[in-house]
Sequence to fold (209 residues):
Amino acid sequence: MRLCNKEGSRRHLTCRFHGYSWDTKGQCRNIPQSWDFPQLCKDELSLPELAVDVWQGFIFVHPNPDAEPLESFLGGLSKQWEDCGWSLDKRYKAVHVRKRIRCNWKVAQEAFMEGYHGAAVHPDTIIPAAPYETFRADVFPGEATFSRGLGSAGVLASDASNAIEKQQAALDHFVKMYTPEFSERDDLVVTENESARDIMHRLSAEKLL
Fold:
């Protein structure tokens, strides 16, 4: 149950259904009409303890208070982020886009955790603008809890003699599928100075404005 609807601080937690309350350490502090429940003992009604930690602005909760520490579980992931200078806790939401999907939430989330399904599910939408050759999955020795997926739209083999033509084809497909409202513009041409990826980035940003 949601405990509050806005930011702030509280000295105790109160169940809005029966009115029981606990302090911030989880100790029961009030049982309404306790005279009618002589069998209940406040000391036996403490809230269960959980393992809690914070990383990159996210709060991680484990139901087992004796679970492995988060830092140990993350392994080398934290150092990779530090070396890259990434900091999620300093980011902010500039644009919020919501799409209601009629499916189990795990299915929706897991679809964005790998690109292997692309050829089967998106052969006529994503793959022409972001071919399989541009996707890469990295696993790291000794790291059992994370991997890394990399993919680039509009980036093709640099050694191809018709690289610009292929990029243009990828860009044309991207515009047709994702930004058709810009299809009549005359600045959607791949050149030596602006790649298909550069133009896709520019269009995606403009679409959100």
Q: What stands out?
A: The two ends are 36 Å apart (CA to CA). The mean pLDDT is 88. The chain is about 25% helix and 10% strand.
